[in-house]
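Sorry to interrupt, but I need a hand with the structure work. Leave the record below and I will have a look:
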Amino acid sequence: MRRMGLRTFLVVSLLAIAPAVFAQEQAFTNRSTELRDRGAADARVVASLPENTAVKVLARGGGWTRVEANGQSGWVSVFALRFPATVETGSSSAGGSALSGITSLFGGGRSADKPATIATTGIRGLSPEDLKNASPDNAALAKMQGYRADKPAAERFAREGKLATVSVDEPQGGRR
């Protein structure tokens, strides 16, 4: 009975600390980027992080990720990070695991000594609060409209630049 209590205690303890351990995943900057004091493009820059800087992920929010790097914490764009993952596969023979068969089926057929980098990014759209608080920037709109070109101007630009028309076939299966 005492032994069962100890096992239960260990399992409960491991489950209690697991979220803290797994919540802080490792990532690397995929280009030089700025560490900001909050998750916004207009936030104050705390530090500059060079490409391939190791960071510890602390939190995620929309298109921003709160990280710790070089003793400082702040926010970086999710697009400035890469999250390495190692896919392990075994033999696909009868002795191989079901997981190895599944991973090789989906292109994860690499050995443990050759890590595969898998990158996924999900960003939710604007919230109703974001839309409610939005305000148009009429000066930016006017500036953007100043870059507009009509068809004759675009054709003249192409002629002067000696650009040629190139047809590109649509991928099999339609648009993606």
